[in-house]
Specification:
There is one protein chain. This protein is mostly helical and 85 residues long. It has one domain. It has helices at 2-23, 31-45, 47-59, 61-84. It is flat.
Length: 85
């Protein structure tokens, strides 16, 4: 069951990224947050994507630093809710 859930969330993340990229074609910043959310879903479900993200982070630390901060905030919020139970 866990395998199916992970694959579903991974596929959903890629669909959200594609949707955000198509929204990015129209004027305005509408697609950027949607693509970021899709990337967070993909990174949370795929070990390969996380490894590539770490490599990019080491290669471009200034650019990837802001993305890393957003992801770390999300992980801290997730651990808070699991420890509160």
């Amino acid at each position: 069951m866990e395998f199916i859930k992970r694959r579903f969330l991974l596929g959903l993340g890629w669909l959200i990224i594609l949707f955000g990229l198509t929204l990015g074609l129209i004027p305005g910043p509408g697609g950027i947050p949607i693509v970021a959310f899709g990337f967070m879903l993909v990174l949370s479900q795929s070990l390969t994507a996380r490894k590539k993200f770490v490599r990019l982070q080491k290669k471009y630390p200034k650019f990837m630093g802001s993305i890393r901060k957003v992801l770390s905030r999300r992980n801290k919020a997730k651990t808070k809710t699991t420890t509160d139970k």
